[in-house]
């Protein structure tokens, strides 16, 4: 599936019905999701691979990975309403994806069952809670060898330092992230920000 076709398929998916600012529930725009996934696929990290969408929200990254031929896809999110929307989205595209309500910070969960080849994720940027992305990075490197994540602009140096000794930053791709008015504190109908799609590879 080419990039444009993937983007068109992902545009069909529903977003958050009642997003909460506490969880930073900004929907991942289809062009950004498609670009991240297509790039990962070109590097052999999606097709035929076990993929986990960590903090899946309404499932756009997981659905895209399934469309690109992942052998198995699992999506995890703390919000039951988001997981329900993710299931509807997978059904809309005729995809077989497992979605689980789970908190990435839950050390009591058997994370071994979610071991995979590749994690894709759009973790919180930390606007509401500083370093909210750290548990996602930690869990991603625990369960996968390859990690593709969307981070706020300027995060690459932090991610490299935070994961030193555990992973290497393979690549950083900057792209435009159109953010629609979602919460009361947003002042405009749309604001374009720059994000960094970061590819991490776990050290053996």
Structure notes:
The protein is of the alpha/beta class. It has one domain: 3-Layer(aba) Sandwich (Rossmann fold). 29% of the residues lie in helices and 26% in strands. The chain has 6 helices and 7 strands; from the N terminus they run H-H-E-H-E-H-E-E-H-E-H-E-E. The protein has a 7-stranded mixed beta sheet, sandwiched between helices. Strand 1, helix 3 and strand 2 form a beta-alpha-beta unit. Helix 1 packs antiparallel against helix 2 and helix 2 crosses helix 3. The longest helix is centred in the N-terminal third of the chain and has 13 residues.
Q: Helix count?
A: 6
- Could you say how many structural domains there are in total? 1
Q: Just name the CATH architecture.
A: 3-Layer(aba) Sandwich
CATH superfamily: Vaccinia Virus protein VP39
Physical arrangement of strands within the biggest beta sheet: 3-2-1-4-5-7-6
User: Radius of gyration in whole Å, from Cα?
Assistant: 15 Å
Order of helices and strands: HHEHEHEEHEHEE
User: Regarding CATH, which class?
Assistant: Alpha Beta
The portion of residues assigned to helices is 25-40%
**Distance between the ends:** 32 Å
Task: Please give the structural blueprint.
Blueprint: H1 3-11, H2 30-42, E1 50-54, H3 60-67, E2 72-77, H4 80-92, E3 98-101, E4 118-121, H5 134-143, E5 146-152, H6 156-162, E6 167-180, E7 190-202
Parallel strand pairs: 1-2, 1-4, 2-3, 4-5
Antiparallel strand pairs: 5-7, 6-7
Keywords:
nucleic acid binding; rRNA_MeTrfase/Polyamine_Synth; 7 strands; single chain; SAM-dependent_MTases_sf; 29% helix; Rossmann fold; alpha/beta; Methyltransferase-like protein 5; 7-stranded mixed beta sheet; 204 residues; S-adenosylmethionine-dependent methyltransferase activity; 6 helices
């Amino acid at each position: 599936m080419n990039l444009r076709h993937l983007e068109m398929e992902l545009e069909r998916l529903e977003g958050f019905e009642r997003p909460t600012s506490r969880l930073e529930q900004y929907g991942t725009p289809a062009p950004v999701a498609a670009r991240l996934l297509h790039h990962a696929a070109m590097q052999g990290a999606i097709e035929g691979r076990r993929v986990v969408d960590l903090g899946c929200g309404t499932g756009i990254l997981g659905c895209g990975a399934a469309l690109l031929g992942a052998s198995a896809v699992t999506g995890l999110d703390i919000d039951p309403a988001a997981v329900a929307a993710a299931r509807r989205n997978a059904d809309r595209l005729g995809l077989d994806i497992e979605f689980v309500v789970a908190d990435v910070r839950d050390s009591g969960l058997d994370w071994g069952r979610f071991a995979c080849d590749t994690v894709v994720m759009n973790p919180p940027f930390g606007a509401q809670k500083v370093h909210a992305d750290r548990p996602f990075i930690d869990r991603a490197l625990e369960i996968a060898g390859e990690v593709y994540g969307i981070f706020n602009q300027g995060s690459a140096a932090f991610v490299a330092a935070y994961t030193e000794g555990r992973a290497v930053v393979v690549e950083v791709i900057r792209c435009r992230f159109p953010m629609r008015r979602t919460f009361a504190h947003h002042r405009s109908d749309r604001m374009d920000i720059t994000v960094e799609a970061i590819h991490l590879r776990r050290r053996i």
